Amino acid sequence: MKKTPERIEALAAEYVLGSLKGPARRRFEQWMMESGRVRQEVWFWEERLSELSRELPEEAPPRSVWQGIERQLWPQQAQAKPTRSGFARWFWPGWSLVATAAVLVLAVVLVQQPRQPDTGQLSGAVVQANLEDPLWLVSESASDRLLKLRSVAATAAATGKDYELWVVPESGQPLSLGVIPAGGVHTVRLSDEARQALSKSRTLAISLEPRGGSPTGAPTGPILHVTKLYSL
Amino acid sequence: MAYAQKDTDHDRLMRLLMQIARDDRDAFRQLYELVAARMFGMCLKLAGQRDLAEEALQDAFVQIWHRASEYHRDRGAPLNWMMTIARYRTLDLMRARKARPTMGDEGLEDLDDGRSGPLESSLRDAGASRLTGCLDELSDVQRDSILLSYYRGFTHEELSQALSSPIGTVKSWIRRGLIALKRCLER
Question: Which keywords fit this entry according to its UniProt record (chain A) (predicted)?
Answer without folding.
Answer: Membrane, Transmembrane, Transmembrane helix
